[in-house]
Write a structure and sequence with these properties.
The complex is a heterodimer of chains A (about 600) and B (about 500).
Chain A lengths: L4 E10 L2 E8 L2 E4 L5 E6 L6 E8 L13 H8 L12 H31 L14 H17 L7 H8 L3 E7 L4 E8 L3 H13 L6 H17 L4 H11 L13 H6 L2 H11 L6 E6 L3 H12 L23 E7 L4 E7 L8 H11 L5 H9 L3 E10 L4 E9 L5 H17 L4 H17 L4 H14 L4 H10 L3 H11 L5 E8 L10 H7 L2 H20 L3 H14 L8 H22 L1
Parallel strand pairs in A: 4-8, 9-13
Antiparallel strand pairs in A: 1-2, 3-4, 5-7, 5-8, 6-7, 10-12, 10-13, 11-12
Helix pairs in contact in A: 1-9, 2-3, 5-10, 11-17, 13-17, 18-21, 20-21
Chain B lengths: L3 H4 L40 E3 L5 E6 L5 E9 L12 H11 L7 H10 L3 E6 L3 E9 L3 H13 L5 H16 L5 H14 L11 H6 L2 H11 L5 E7 L3 H12 L21 E6 L4 E9 L8 H13 L5 H9 L6 E6 L7 E9 L3 H17 L4 H13 L8 H14 L5 H10 L3 H11 L6 E6 L1 H6 L20 E3 L13
Parallel strand pairs in B: 2-6, 7-11, 7-12
Antiparallel strand pairs in B: 1-2, 3-5, 3-6, 4-5, 8-10, 8-11, 9-10
The chains are: A alpha+beta (about 600), B alpha+beta (about 500).
């Protein structure tokens, strides 16, 4: 058996001995149809493998109108094929055609009727079923009915069921700005199952259950983004920071586009970006490579390139040439981010920028020492160098402590930047970061799944060999390199600043009896208040918690029918009942 | 280089060729055959050693990388916090790593650990505590000295404590920003009772009251050889490692063993509870008390729950709520068993406001179905095969395997458990599934906890659903109780 790693000393001296660099040496081959494979044997985790494949296509291969389609397709590729997922492929096709027709009609109606209504401010969302016109409502009911009928011949989640029953686990996929990756863990003896299942879905996928899955993705968007403290602002800041390139829209897509995809658009995207010549398969773990190669050739060899290769992503990013500032409120901690344009994966300045981030991070890093400990300005602070296929960014993030203003943190950061530009970093400080990078280069290889991801993603971007090269380049970074990259990238007309502040409006102030009095019309004020005080006294004496809960619920139900002049009084009663309930509950504990 | 994929030669149909033609290949995965994979779980005794002070050591060698991982695991945790000191456990663990040692200031300690590229950590969990180190073999001696100084004589530096306290205060100030966090906290209050350690939450007052003396006293009760077990894996010479542990631990006195873990006494009233939060997705948790780890029904319950909602897409709740109806991205169910007392059954999903009631109805439908109808053999076998075939993964990573043996010994798991596990799974029948579904799923006892804008949730999808059979409002689940919105810092009702 080939040893997957060889350990080679590369001469850099640590305080405690030579640093070692791992050499990962996968078997590499390409099928006649252009699909490439990387096979890495590793017997440290016996009887298991991690297997998967990657396409270098992601949200940057999209265009306005179909943003998020890479991710939508990723979901639909788990629906099976003519063989998997249906008991009657012909009827299934017929259902899909009928659904496509209804979807076409609904889409036309939404664009022609609902979009104008939305632009005129008559409805809050042109796609939401609650805003449907009667005609749309009827089409939607027919769609639901057809979907229910189709269910009789659909074998739901069969793709997952087959894998699960054979002991596979962790089946999943991920979509990024510039790749989409599919993977699973399997017992070693199930390699042929993997080649069967994956080549089948690539050969002949069937995008059934499209509309239900569309709503699943909408829920995913809410869960990941909209219902999180900073999700929406993060998305908007990205959209501002990337000016020309496709990195400006979110991987999951804009809500309008999610609602609008057609099956044709999805098929076209699939046939373009999932051709075998655009794919790389990767297997890591305890398996026989000769056997694997045979299976791969038989199964993946079936795939054909049906279209010309995908068009390159034409529009590259343009320099900022000015400072962007973004501020917004969210239900979140106050936060500042200063983000600079930096470099993509494979750029020679990447390692120096990574080392620069490492010098700033951790409890011995400059940010903790200065901003958190010495100046007491921040409760947390970190830097990050992010490299993608064709762009990169370098960010500073911090949350303030005590009364510190976000702009104080911003200033403190600029002082750090000035120091980085003007003083060479000390030898020991640099060596510490390199020692950590050297140890981490082993740590990140000590698991099949980690190895799988690194091989696949490096391969999709710059070639898998980068996995072996990169740790070496980190060790070669000099203090001059760090000063130079700070001077080059951490400059004012190359940055965006995002200031998030905590929303205050959510915390309503307590209503007082005086507020109630003032809110009532003068002519009835006296009369109402005298009655009202008596009722409040009764409320304060009430001990039956069920009764209180009942009145609270009743009040809530009447809320919308309350005349505006009594609104404050009404809210006050609600508040007092809740307080009374809480008092009783608190006492009972 | 970046355009690698564009320079590849496009293989047209004419050059398309492969070893086998499509006709030779099995038409369905059912037709595939696989060679048998024999796996017997390793016996823990093989890896067990004992120091002269009685501390057990589980140890395994691996030479793949020049790295060593050592974990010190201690009995004792947050359940031992004194009254009014919620948060002490977590802060003690964090401060052990951040607060220096008796000999080294915090920055000296951190500087040396970082220069050695040693990952050193400490934490105090709900019922157990641990400290661990991952270091290059070449640096083992010095890294181990630092590690042991941290474990035995942490410094609890005052300035570092103030930094940590400010972070913790910031965390509690913003803890209602996240709906999932609210849901889990309120469910814990209901299920365990607010005073049980599983539910206990730090407040501004409790965090402000914590002193370095509190931490020293708390540390001393947990981190001593009387509570200790050790797991070692990586690039080691086992004899030398044992000798080093023996020598470095000598003279370390055992204290009182950690007390037993208290069972909860709360019995929540079933029904709908809601917590008001303005958001466009609602978190729903449906829960009741479940079973203990060593319950005789534990394996059939695991099988039953995997069918119901515990095995991703293959399970019924996920299939129904997510795949069929498109109501949620995350939906499923779980039994989280506790060792000392029955744990929780919980079903969960996150959905848009109007479909909360419909999705809730579907979950209860699935519970009723698994109670009413015997499960089909194919569905049952899929789950059984999955549990049997994934069984070796429990022992896949060497360090995880050592930690498994260690925790089994600490918790007194039946030594034959892993040996018999696959047979126990195999023997589960459709009748067993139905029986445990009736016995251990208790919709009549369920607490339904909802976080979101109640007025909209309550009305359901009356305005948006075209199919009358899918119209649902929260009325069908009975009277709802409002949990007063809390002040995040005090957790007292805020208005």
């Amino acid at each position: 058996m080939r040893k997957p790693f060889s350990l080679a000393a590369f001469g850099m001296l640590l305080a405690t001995g030579p640093a070692l660099a791992q050499q990962v040496e996968p078997i590499e081959f390409t099928l006649d149809n252009g699909m490439k494979f990387l096979l890495l044997q590793r017997d440290e985790q016996p009887n298991v493998i991690t297997a998967g494949w990657i396409t270098p296509a992601g949200s940057t291969n999209e265009r306005p109108g179909i943003t998020g389609i890479s991710h939508m397709l990723e979901h639909l590729l788990f629906k099976g094929s003519d063989t998997i997922g249906t008991s009657d492929p012909e009827q299934d096709r017929d259902f899909r055609e009928r659904l496509t027709e209804i979807r076409r009609q609904m889409r036309t109606m939404v664009f022609e009727v609902q979009y104008p209504r939305f632009f005129r401010g008559e409805i809050d969302n042109p796609w939401m079923p609650s805003n449907d016109t009667p005609e749309l409502r009827e089409l939607r009911a027919r769609m639901t009915q057809l979907q229910d009928e189709q269910r009789a011949i659909t074998v739901q989640n069969e793709f997952d069921r087959i894998y699960t029953g054979e002991g596979a686990s962790g089946m999943n996929a991920g979509t990024g700005h510039d790749f989409t990756i599919y993977y699973i863990n399997l017992p070693s003896n199930k390699l042929e199952l993997w080649t069967w299942m994956e080549s089948d879905r690539l050969l002949d996928p069937s995008f059934r259950e499209l509309d239900a899955e569309r709503f699943v993705v909408v829920e995913e968007r809410r869960q990941r983004l909209e219902a999180t403290p900073t999700g929406i602002l993060d998305e908007r800041f990205d959209a501002m920071f990337w000016v020309a390139s496709a990195y400006s829209w979110p991987v999951i897509g804009w809500m309008s586009d999610l609602m609008a995809y057609t099956e044709d658009e999805i098929v076209e995207y699939f046939e373009t970006h999932y051709q075998p010549a655009n794919l790389t398969g990767v297997i890591v773990g305890d398996f026989n490579p000769d056997e694997a190669r045979q299976l791969i050739e038989s199964y993946f060899g079936r795939l054909e390139n049906k279209r010309p290769p995908p068009d390159p992503v034409v529009t590259y990013e343009v320099p900022l040439r000015g400072e962007l500032r973004f501020s917004g409120e969210c239900d979140c901690q106050d936060r500042v981010e200063v983000r600079y344009r930096a470099v993509p994966a494979g750029h020679p300045d990447g390692p120096a920028l990574d080392v620069l981030a490492d010098l700033l991070n951790g409890r011995t890093g400059r940010l903790y020492r200065s901003l958190i400990e010495d100046q007491g300005l921040a409760s947390s602070a970190r830097a990050s160098n992010r490299m993608q296929r064709s762009v990169g960014s370098f960010s500073f993030f911090a949350n303030p402590r005590g009364g510190a203003a976000l702009t104080d943190l911003e200033q403190a950061w600029y002082e750090q930047v000035e120091r980085l530009k003007s003083e060479p970093v000390g030898e020991r400080e640099l060596q510490k970061v390199k020692n950590q990078a050297a140890a981490d280069s082993f740590r990140q290889l000590s698991d099949n799944a980690n190895l799988f991801f690194q091989l696949a993603i490096y391969e999709a971007w710059v070639g898998w060999e980068e996995l072996n090269e990169y740790p070496r380049r980190i060790q070669e970074v000099t203090p001059e390199d760090i000063m130079r990259v700070a001077q080059t990238y951490l400059v004012d007309d190359n940055k965006g600043v995002a200031l998030y502040t905590r929303r205050q409006a959510g915390e309503r102030p307590m209503i007082t009896l005086e507020d109630v009095e003032a809110s009532l019309p003068e002519e009835i004020r006296e009369m109402i208040m005298s009655q009202f005080r008596g009722q409040l006294a009764e409320l304060a004496a009430e001990t039956d918690i069920e009764k209180l809960r009942e009145s609270s619920e009743q009040l809530r139900q009447q809320a919308s029918a309350m005349p505006p002049q009594f609104k404050t009084m009404f809210d006050f009663v609600q508040q007092e009942i809740d307080r009374r309930i809480a008092e009783i509950e608190g006492g009972a504990e | 280089m970046k355009l690698l994929f564009l320079t590849m030669i496009l293989a047209g149909p004419a050059t398309f060729a492969s070893v086998a033609t499509a006709g030779d290949l099995p038409r369905h995965p059912d037709e595939l055959t696989f060679r048998e994979l024999v796996f017997e779980p390793p016996a823990p005794e093989q890896f067990r050693h004992e120091l002269s002070n009685g501390v057990p050591v589980y140890m395994i060698e691996s030479t793949e990388f020049p790295l060593v991982t050592i974990t010190f695991s201690f009995k004792g945790g947050a359940y031992m916090e004194p009254g009014g000191k919620a948060g002490l456990a977590g802060m003690t663990g964090a401060m052990m790593r951040q607060g220096g040692t008796a000999d080294l200031s915090p920055s000296e300690f951190d500087e040396e650990a970082d220069f050695l590229a040693a990952n050193i950590s400490a934490s105090v969990g709900p019922t157990t505590s641990s400290a661990s180190i991952n270091t290059l073999t070449a640096n083992l001696d010095r890294a181990m000295e630092l590690f042991l100084d941290m474990v035995r004589e942490p410094g609890f530096d005052e300035r570092r404590l103030e930094v940590l306290r400010s972070q913790q205060l910031e965390n509690i100030r913003t803890r209602d920003d996240n709906g999932i966090q609210i849901a889990l906290r309120e469910l814990a209050f209901l299920m365990w009772g607010p005073d049980h350690f599983e539910a206990r939450q730090p407040t501004r007052a409790s965090l402000e009251s914590i002193t370095t003396d509190d931490m020293r006293a708390f540390h001393a009760r947990i981190f001593h050889p009387g509570n200790l077990m050790i797991a070692v894996s990586g690039d080691i010479d086992p004899d030398a490692m044992l000798a080093m542990l023996e020598q470095k631990l000598s003279g370390w006195e055992a204290g009182e063993p950690a007390p037993s873990i208290p069972a909860p006494t709360a019995s929540p009233e079933p029904g709908v509870y809601y917590y008001e939060k303005d958001q466009n997705q609602v978190q729903v948790l449906i829960a009741h008390r479940g079973i203990a780890r060593d319950d005789p029904d534990a394996v059939p319950v695991q099988v039953m729950n995997d069918i119901l909602g515990g095995s991703g897409f293959t399970s019924r709740i996920t299939n129904r709520v997510r795949t069929q109806e498109g109501l949620a991205y995350t939906a499923g169910s779980a039994f989280s068993n506790r060792i000392e007392y029955p744990g929780l059954f919980m079903s969960y999903f996150f959905t848009k406001t109007p479909t909360t009631a419909l999705a809730t109805r579907l979950v209860f439908d699935e519970i009723a179905t698994i109670q009413r109808q015997a499960v089909g053999t194919e569905e049952l076998e899929t789950i059984q095969n999955s549990l049997i075939e994934t069984f070796p993964r429990n022992f896949e990573s060497k360090s995880a395997m050592m930690n498994l043996f260690l925790s089994d010994e600490r918790t007194g798991r039946d030594p034959s458990y892993w040996r018999n596990y696959r047979d126990m799974v195999r023997s589960v029948s459709p009748d067993d599934v139905q029986r445990v579904a009736n016995e251990h799923l208790r919709p009549d006892k369920a607490v339904i906890l909802i976080v979101g804008p109640w007025d909209e949730i309550k009305q359901g999808n009356v305005d948006s659903e075209a199919d009358p059979s899918r119209v649902a409002t929260m009325d069908e689940f009975g009277q709802a109780r409002r949990i007063p919105t809390r002040d995040p810092e005090t957790l007292e009702p805020s208005r």
